[in-house]
Amino acid sequence: MTSTTSVSYTAPSSSSPKMAPQRRSPAIDNLTISTVTSNSSMEIDLRRVSSMPERGGVETVMSNSDEEDIIRKSQSEGAKPLLKLDQYGFISNMDKDGLVVPTADSQRPTQQGKGASITSVEQRRTTKWKIMLNSWSNIMKRRPKLVLKRLRKGIPHEQRGKVWLTLCHVKERQQQNPGLYEKYANSKESPSKAFQTVQETIEKDIHRTFPRHSLFYDDGNDSEAEMVDSPFGGSLLDAPDRHDDEEREREIVEGQASLKRVLKAYSLHDPDVGYCQGMNFIAGMFLTIVTEEEAFWMLVAIMSDQPCYMRGLFGEGMRETHKVLYVAEQLVHQFLPRLAKHFDKENIHVTMYATQWLLTQYTSSFRFDLVLRVWDCFLQEGWKITYRVMLAILQEFQSQLLQLSFEEILAFMRDLPERIEDGGKIVTASIHIPLRKKHILKLEREWLAKQDQH
Question: pTM for this one?
Answer without folding.
Answer: 0.75
